[in-house]
Design goal:
heterodimer; A: 762 residues; mainly beta; 49 strands; globular; B: 308 residues; alpha+beta; seven-stranded mixed sheet; five-stranded antiparallel sheet; 5 helices; 15 strands; 15% helix
């Protein structure tokens, strides 16, 4: 046999080994095994369950459901077997199944919601059978919903109680994850990007937990499927709706009212839910005082989804999400209106080809707009910016064998960025597209990006698993191609302990002009020829153990480098290109996190601690000297506990303790003036940028839920006490130079806030 | 002792309770470690030399400030930072202007530097350099190019009147227009109340009616409430004179500036940048501050009272 023939034989054998699961019978024939595939659903609602495990204990094989609730277990030996299906929050279920050689069985398994949240068999290894994910946090949405601020349940607020997830302050919902700023997080809802998930200048996020079915937060080294952001992925999926009966929830809170309705429709289900604030409605009832007007403010968000099943293999979902904020102020000759909106819509089609090839196609439209208008004695001014994307995403998940999974797909996005400004004074004056004159701007930038990825996950042995992926992105405006290889390895060291390591390269194409303390007129910009895409490299080492039944203990060490990251140039007023708007620099973040979690039982919650460092360096900032960003906090301790006392009472507590945020000190003070010569301005000369640290932040929140019935309807009375011991942390510190004595002034955050709300289910 | 024994007993319960122990140790360590997280407010004083100088086409250099910055924790007394013995020269390719110190008592305001020869006028479209040599050998230097002379195309009217701001009457607006200047894309406008006390004396016939402020709900606690000047930043060569531009009624000077980039940046420093000095917005080598230029035109107007 010549060398070419030998190579062909080896390749063919390797392929057969891969495709056949790598097991040969003694007689040299490949064993003919069966395949079990299907869905796992909630028995009460028919909602498909994500991350449920399907496991054959006697064969040691199993799998977990994907984001569509679909699973495939290959290599099931012929004969009678018992399959155990489990998911957090549900009673385990064991089902006998009989396979004949080579048989494929498609089943939908129903799980009954657990009443007492008893012991659950968690099969972590099988959950990661098809994909290794490092630094992924799985918190049941029901637990996230119990973390309320001012009576408002909020997904982002809840995620801030995880170690390694920091904030710029307690009143900001922005997530600073492992040294990354909020714009470096990819936020997806049903696969569509949400560009500004915030309400009330960033105090709340736009995601109403009533409407959310599943939240995945991946804090680093995420797989090739995700791209376009440097730091983390927050992947949310909306509820499909109850397929069996109509049900609804009304919640009356101090700040907002929430309403949701779900039920069966056609061959599927629907869900619609929303919330709206009251403040404007209340103030409209009060007598107006033109000399001291009160601002009108409201926000709302709406989630909707319709799911339809066509046969065994096809599911189509149409989903939408809208959020809007509006602030209006009028008086003393000034009228001012500030608005922010997100509109997201999409269609998702999933199809299974045979048993082992799962396909999903998402087409989405996402629009984020923010702006303000004003009128001052007839002088009109207006500014607005928006980003609209139309995205198509296709993904194949090929369960090649019990040991090999291939995932491949594409993303294509058409962007339109619009920046509009009219400071001419004339509201009827609308600049032509392309105008960039003083006072009148109407810039429209069209761009598109495309990406493709391929990822293979292979079990080398029963205990050792590896994953390799490559993502290639193309950015049209800057005519750039980036290659992002990603890899991970997982070793099941003992039955209770697994070690994982991951590395990946990540690029970010979009830049966000924003302020760290609050969200106002946040402006997304593309990468043009004046800047290069930002780049990050993640290294993560992780261990997962289950030292006690029901307790998971994770330990992560991470290191991340960042290149070409952005810092907003706050004083630029006449930018020609993206490079004029931002300073460009580099950074690094590293640290370690411990996360002890109890997901089931009467007592659930977690204890997390993060130790982290973040450094940044920009040629034009801090005289080019490296500094730590404002949100760098060395220590980060979080404790969350929820206890079901009995059928009537639930108790909860959350505590956070963090190093104080950084601030900039002063070395001296001097006086200057403007050309009028009559006004004196005293300035301070800063010391090292963010070189000092404020006192630590800490806060305790308590909540009590009382379950009852009102007019025969299942109801809950919720008492929340925010900031129980009224620790008023410092929001920011500055040097006040209005007087002859320089005052070090602290602006403090909110005191204790008790709130009462009522939730009624029907 | 009992607690200790209990701890020992627990520890022998192999493996099952070590997360609890770990958590306790972790919390103990953290409580100890975190107590020292806060940095004290710094007291280090690092003096700097601060220069503020603007020159205008057709005018002689004056009101130029040179000071030493003072400790942020001491009571700020401007006079303690004044530097009166510096040798400051401003020159172009055609002219050299030496500055002299004018003490506060002579100036009637803060001590400052001005041209020794007050007939030495700054020329438009000319580059000027500044050098200040201090007693300790420190040298400050900077450069500015004076823009072309700005001229009114439509001046502010002599009389201005607005409806009461809290009712929706159509406002009488006046548009100011000026000549575009090469290289200048952003202009500054200054509206200065010339006499915050007198009002009736400028009427015909004169009366004794006093002047007063225009009260607005959002200005009651605003910083710089007492400043008699309102500044505007205009990315255009025309602007409507708006009600909000005025803080008092009565006599006003309305000035339009064509600034050089250094003046524009320093304006951002002072007006937009908070009170923290940003070295990127200054242009003085060897110290901090600005040496900048502009051309300007001023017109006087009178704002009639129309509020009760």
């Amino acid at each position: 046999m010549n060398r070419t023939g030998l190579r062909s034989t080896v390749l063919a054998a390797a392929l057969c080994w891969l495709l056949g699961g790598g097991v040969l019978r003694a007689d040299g024939e490949l064993p003919v095994t069966g395949t079990l595939s299907g869905y796992v659903v909630d028995s009460a609602t028919g909602e498909k369950l994500i991350g449920a495990t399907v496991f054959f204990p006697q064969h040691g094989i199993g799998a977990a459901t994907n984001v569509s609730g679909y699973f495939v277990v290959k290599g099931v030996p012929a004969g009678l077997s018992t399959v155990r299906i489990s998911s957090i929050g549900y009673d385990d279920r064991e089902v006998p199944l009989s396979f004949v050689e080579g048989e494929s069985i498609r089943r939908t398994f129903e799980l009954v919601p657990s009443v007492d949240q008893g012991d659950i068999v968690t099969v972590t290894a099988d959950r990661e059978k098809r994909e290794i994910t490092l630094s992924k946090v799985e918190i049941p949405v029901e637990q996230l919903a119990q973390l309320r601020i001012g009576g408002e349940a909020d997904v982002f607020r809840a995620l801030q109680f995880l170690p390694g997830v920091l904030t710029s302050s307690q009143i900001s919902s922005g997530l600073y994850i492992r040294g990354g700023s909020p714009d470096q997080n990819l936020v997806l809802i049903d696969g569509a990007t949400v560009y500004n998930p915030s309400h009330l200048l960033g105090f709340f996020s736009t995601f109403n937990p009533d409407a959310i079915k599943d939240v995945d937060l991946i804090k680093g080294a995420y797989p090739a499927e995700y791209g376009g952001r440097l730091s983390a992925v927050l992947d949310l999926r909306q509820k499909d709706g109850n397929m069996n009966e109509i049900e609804g929830v009304v919640s009356l809170g101090l700040i907002s009212t929430r309403l949701s309705l779900q039920g069966p429709i056609g061959k599927g289900s629907f869900f619609i839910g929303g919330r709206r604030t009251y403040l404007d409605l209340i103030t409209n009832l009060l007598p107006e005082d033109p000399e001291n007007p009160f601002p009108d403010f409201y926000f709302y968000d709406v989630n909707a989804k319709v799911t339809q099943t066509f046969g065994e293999d096809d599911v189509v979902q149409i989903s939408g999400f809208a959020s809007e904020d509006n602030l209006k102020l009028e008086g003393s000759g000034l009228a001012f209106n500030l608005g922010l909106s997100n509109y997201v819509g999409g269609i998702r089609w999933t199809h299974t080809f045979g048993d082992d090839l799962f396909f999903s196609l998402n087409t989405n439209l996402s629009d984020y707009t923010t702006g303000f208008t004003g009128e001052n004695s007839g002088f009109f001014f207006e500014a607005e910016n928006s980003i609209r994307d139309m995205t198509a995403k296709g993904k194949f998940e090929w369960y090649v064998s019990e040991d090999l999974t291939v995932k491949t797909g594409f993303d294509a996005t058409k962007y339109r960025f619009n920046y509009f400004q009219n400071f001419s004074g004339d509201s009827t004056s609308v600049a032509d597209p392309g105008t960039n004159d003083a006072g009148q701007v109407n810039l429209i930038v069209d761009d598109w990006t495309a990406a493709g990825y391929l990822q293979g996950n292979y079990s080398l042995t029963d205990l050792l698993q590896m994953q390799a992926g490559l993502r290639i992105d193309y950015f049209d405006l800057s005519n750039t191609v980036t290659f992002d290889p990603r890899g991970a390895i997982r070793w099941q060291m003992t039955p209770e302990m697994a070690l994982k390591a991951g590395v990946g390269i990540y690029h970010q194409y979009l830049r966000l002009a924003t302020q760290p303390d609050f969200s106002f007129f946040d402006t997304w910009m593309p990468t043009d020829s004046s800047v290069v895409p930002a780049k990050g490299v993640h290294y993560v080492l992780s261990s997962e153990t289950e030292p006690i039944d029901g307790f998971n203990l994770n330990f992560d060490v991470y290191y991340k480098t960042l290149e070409n990251i952005s810092e907003l140039n706050n004083t630029v007023t006449n930018a020609e290109n993206v490079g004029d708007v931002f300073y460009s620099g580099e950074g690094e973040a590293y640290g370690a996190e411990i996360f002890l979690q109890k997901k089931t039982g009467r007592l659930v919650g977690w204890l997390g601690y993060g130790l982290g460092w973040v450094n940044a360096r920009f040629d034009s900032v801090n005289r080019g000297v490296e500094f730590r960003p404002k949100y760098d906090r060395r220590h980060d301790l979080k404790v969350v506990a929820q206890y079901e006392l009995n059928d009537r009472w639930d108790l909860g507590a959350s505590f956070t303790f963090q190093s104080g945020q950084s601030y900039t000190g002063a070395t001296s003070r001097f006086r200057t003036q403007l050309p009028d010569g009559s006004s004196e301005y005293d300035l301070i000369v800063p010391s090292q940028r963010y070189g000092l640290r404020l006192p630590p932040s800490h806060q305790l929140n308590l909540n009590v839920n009382y379950n009852t019935t009102i007019f025969g309807l299942e109801s809950r009375l919720l008492l929340d006490i925010y900031n129980v011991y009224s620790r008023r942390d410092i929001w920011f510190r500055f040097y006040e130079t209005d007087g002859e004595t320089t005052e070090v002034t602290d602006v403090r955050l909110l005191p204790i806030i008790p709130t009462l709300s009522l939730e009624v289910r029907f | 002792m009992r607690g200790l024994l209990r701890t020992r007993t627990t520890m022998t319960d192999a493996g099952r309770s070590w997360p609890t122990l770990l958590a306790v140790l972790l919390l103990t360590g953290l409580t100890t470690g975190l107590a020292g997280c806060e940095d004290p407010v710094p007291t280090d004083y690092v003096p700097e030399y601060a220069f503020t100088g603007y020159i205008y086409a057709g005018e002689y250099p004056t009101d130029i400030l040179l000071t030493r910055s003072l400790s942020p924790l001491d009571t700020f007394a401007y006079s303690q930072g004044e530097i009166s013995d510096a040798r400051i020269t401003i020159w172009s390719d055609r002219d050299t202007i030496d500055l002299v110190w004018v003490p506060a008592e002579e100036a009637g305001k803060v001590g400052h530097y001005r041209a020794a020869d007050t007939t030495a006028l700054i020329e438009e479209r000319t580059t000027y350099r500044m050098r200040a040599e201090l007693g300790d050998g420190t040298v400050l230097s900077a450069e500015t190019r004076v823009p072309g002379q700005i001229e009114w195309i439509r001046r502010p009217p002599a009389l201005l009147q607005y409806p009461r701001d809290t009712i929706n009457l159509p406002p009488s607006t006046d548009t100011l227009i000026w000549t575009p200047i090469d290289g200048v894309e952003e202009y500054l406008i200054e509206v200065q109340a010339v006499d915050t006390l007198g009002y009736g004396r400028y009427l015909s016939p004169p009366t004794g009616e006093p002047n007063r402020r225009i009260e607005r709900f959002f200005e009651a606690n605003a910083p710089r409430y007492n400043d008699v000047v309102r500044w505007g930043f205009v990315q255009n060569t025309r602007v409507t004179v708006v009600w909000f531009a005025f803080k008092w009624f009565g006599l006003h000077d309305i000035t339009i500036y064509a600034p050089d980039p250094a003046l524009l940046e320093w304006f951002k420093q002072v007006r937009f940048g908070g009170n923290q000095y940003n070295p990127l917005l200054g242009n003085v080598a060897g110290g901090i501050g600005v040496f900048a230029s502009a051309t300007r035109r001023t017109e006087r107007g009178f704002l009639l009272k129309n509020q009760p």
